[in-house]
């Protein structure tokens, strides 16, 4: 039972493990699963997200609801309502409701996240929707979601990443799941490896 105890005899017809859908690759074939234009939340879940967001904002202090925060990335600035940030991120909530520098200045300088990624994060916080993008972009959004402890966004990233898993990138994604201690995503990667064991290791054997 290699790969953390996940048996290799898992049926290749298995399509789900944990929270995420698993693509399949037939032995000897190479697929790169194409992007999907759909967002993470269905219409009903989207409405539930907005209701929950509104309810959480009502519980915040009035001054937080009225204030905005400027995120500075290089020479670009993104202005965001402070209440939305605090309602959906424990990290932002602590940052803006305690006596931290960001609370005093209402300004956050970010050096490790690109502005398009930040905009995607902010859009998700407001709408509960994450538009699909390429693998690198979604991994960057995943990093931002981890940094600011936005679990719903992290989950949304994993859902959209799953169709993009290939025999070439699965080990990189497994490493990423380890780095961020994401048990569900890690298990999904291990199951993908088990389902496509022959394909993956025949490529390794042939030096591909």
From TrEMBL:
InterPro entries xref list: BTB/POZ_dom, SKP1/BTB/POZ_sf
Listed SUPFAM superfamilies: POZ domain
Transmembrane segments: none
SMART domains cross-referenced by the UniProt entry: BTB (SM00225)
Pfam families linked: BTB
Domain BTB: 67-134
CDD domains per record: BACK, BTB_POZ_ZBTB_KLHL-like
Protein name, entry field: BTB domain-containing protein
């Amino acid at each position: 039972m290699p790969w953390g105890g996940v048996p290799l005899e898992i049926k290749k017809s298995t399509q789900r493990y944990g929270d995420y859908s698993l693509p399949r690759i037939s032995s000897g074939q190479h697929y790169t699963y194409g992007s999907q234009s759909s967002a993470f939340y269905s219409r009903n879940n989207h409405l539930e997200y907005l209701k929950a967001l509104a309810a959480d904002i009502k519980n915040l202090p009035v001054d937080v609801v009225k204030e905005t925060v400027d995120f500075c990335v290089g020479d670009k600035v993104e202005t965001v309502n402070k209440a939305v940030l605090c309602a959906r991120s424990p990290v932002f909530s602590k940052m803006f409701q305690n006596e931290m520098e960001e609370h005093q200045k209402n300004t956050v300088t970010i050096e490790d996240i690109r502005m398009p990624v930040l905009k995607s994060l902010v859009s998700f916080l407001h709408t509960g929707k994450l538009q699909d993008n390429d693998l690198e972009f979604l991994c960057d959004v995943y990093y931002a979601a981890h940094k600011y402890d936005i679990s719903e966004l992290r989950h949304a990233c994993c859902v959209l990443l799953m169709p993009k898993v290939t025999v070439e990138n699965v080990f990189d994604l497994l490493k990423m799941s380890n780095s961020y201690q994401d048990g569900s995503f890690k298990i999904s990667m291990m199951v993908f490896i088990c389902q496509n064991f022959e394909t993956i290791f025949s490529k390794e054997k042939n030096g591909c």
